[in-house]
Design goal:
The protein has 106 residues and is mainly alpha-helical. The protein contains 3 helices and 2 strands; from the N terminus they run H-H-E-E-H.
Length: 106
């Protein structure tokens, strides 16, 4: 029961609420972008001829799009890690605020 009370205290802190807002502000748009970009290749390849355009010799836009997905994944990963490192400060603040609230309740 004590762990539940501890979690409730953390959840009520302004820092935790800010953390949740910050994470959602990044994760939801990043996930939507990833899904659209990822499923764009099979969709465009199956239903259009846009990717058939030759760029250099036999290299078509389909190959460039496919290789761009690797780059996009690494870029999103880097962006997420850099943001997550900043979120650590909010986690620490939430812990401190919850600990302060626990001290006041006693």
């Amino acid at each position: 029961m004590e762990r539940n009370n501890e979690w409730v205290r953390v959840e009520r802190t302004p820092a935790f609420k800010e953390l949740v807002r910050a994470k959602r502000a990044f994760i939801i748009p990043a996930t939507i972008f990833f899904m659209v970009f990822y499923f764009g290749l099979p969709f465009l390849a199956a239903f259009t001829t846009v990717l058939n355009v030759k760029v250099i010799g036999p290299l078509t836009l389909a190959y460039i799009y496919a290789f761009a997905q690797f780059a996009m994944t690494w870029i999103l990963m880097h962006l997420y890690v850099s943001r997550a490192n900043r979120w650590d400060n909010l986690v620490d603040r939430a812990r401190e605020e919850a600990a302060g609230e626990a001290g006041e309740a006693r």
